[in-house]
Amino acid sequence: MSGLSPLRLALLLAITVALGPLALDTYLPAFPQIASDFNVDLPAVGRTLSIYVLVLGLAQLIGGPLSDRYGRRVVLLSGLGIFAVASLVLAGAGSLGSMMFWRVIQAIGGAWAAVSVPAIVRDRTSGNESARLFSLIGLIMFVAPAMAPTIGSLILHFSAWPAIFVMLAVYALLLAITLRAFLFRNLAAAARTRTPVHTLVTNYVRVLKNTTAMRFVIMQTLAFSVLLIFITHASFIYQDWFGRSNAEFSILFAANIVGMVFANLLNRRLLLRFHSAQILRTALFIQSIAVTALLILVMSNAGVVATATAIVIAAGCMGTIAPNNIANALDFFPKQGGTAAALMGAAQFCIAGLISAVSTWLADGTLLPIALVMAACSTGALLFGVGAPAAVERAANKPAG
């Protein structure tokens, strides 16, 4: 077991998970500058975000099983190295095509780092204890997406957009040094699965056959799609449509993180009394109501305050949805935590990335297509969430039967 306290373990894992939001959100304020430099429109720049998310999911399918077989340390630190190198090259990108290519490489490194975190948690906890640890990790790492656009705006104030990617490279390198010194030195290695290489594939079949676990994978994918669609179009919504400045954009974006923190804190308290699947169902219901309200507001040409409020509620629900979904899905796989985490990450990021990319193609210069796609995703997540508590109960009683 770990020689680290739960808080210190959560802190180290949180700053690792924070790499993802930083790679996604820090350069959002730079979209207009990048579009101008490359002589393209904002939706085209948005596709650099969509491709990153898509590859972030696909690369986890490789990183997860490798971490089960060869250890979390090797895969995580290798991923950070790849991420750092790609970030430095991105700083010198001279075209949108070059940026797209190196965002792919950057995403591979980010994926190998990201998939190791839930696997480390599953190595050491289960059930509601996992959900509480995931919530604690989420609570700490919410600082990253809250600060990311502000960091990006601050860098743009003193320099140009390439400096943002230099900052990401420095963060990845410092993170690798920190994890090697404080996490892996004190973290006892989990048992590795020394099975034939072909099990790197067959383990996925085992995960896919668990219909209860797949229910949570689907819910996480659709709920995350709601958030990612907003992130993809955040610059357009606030800076183009409502005409807000970089500073105002950062404040409006940070409001979503405040909502997530509130939901996360509430989730940790509720987990002391209720099963995580019950809490998850309620959160999906609230998210669906918020997105429906957003759709109505968009159709009625409401102002920025009302629109932002609906978005904050919908996005904030992820502070409850994500930790409970992940904990429930991984709870079925004590020996294949990396593989299960990889499948969830792949489904979440690949499908959400595709959906967000589709939303950029549907963009017609208004908010309606964005709100419609978000509504479709939240409704789908709720349909799967309604029966989640009963599905968990059936799965728990199945061995006894």
Structure description:
- The protein has about 400 residues and is an all-alpha fold.
- It has a single domain, classed as Growth Hormone, Chain: A.
- Helices cover about 80% and strands about 0% of the residues.
- It contains 18 helices and no strands.
Brief overview, please?
The chain has 401 residues and is mostly helical. It has a single domain (6-186, 198-397), classed as MFS general substrate transporter like domains (Growth Hormone, Chain: A, Up-down Bundle), CATH 1.20.1250. The chain has helices spanning 6-17, 19-25, 31-38, 42-70, 72-90, 96-124, 127-141, 143-158, 162-183, 199-209, 211-241, 246-270, 276-299, 304-316, 318-330, 337-362, 368-385, 388-397.
Just name the CATH architecture. Answer: Up-down Bundle
Q: Please report the number of helical segments.
A: 18
Helix content: over 70%
In the CATH scheme, the class would be Mainly Alpha
Largest sheet: none
Class from secondary-structure proportions: mainly alpha
Number of domains: 1
Estimated radius of gyration: 20 Å
Task: Based on the model shown, name its key terms.
401 residues, Growth Hormone, Chain: A, 18 helices, mainly alpha
What is the secondary structure topology, with strand pairs?
Blueprint: H1 6-17, H2 19-25, H3 31-38, H4 42-70, H5 72-90, H6 96-124, H7 127-141, H8 143-158, H9 162-183, H10 199-209, H11 211-241, H12 246-270, H13 276-299, H14 304-316, H15 318-330, H16 337-362, H17 368-385, H18 388-397
Helix pairs in contact: 1-7, 1-9, 2-8, 3-4, 4-5, 4-6, 4-11, 4-16, 5-6, 5-9, 6-16, 7-12, 7-15, 8-12, 11-12, 11-14, 11-15, 11-16, 11-17, 12-14, 13-14, 13-15, 13-17
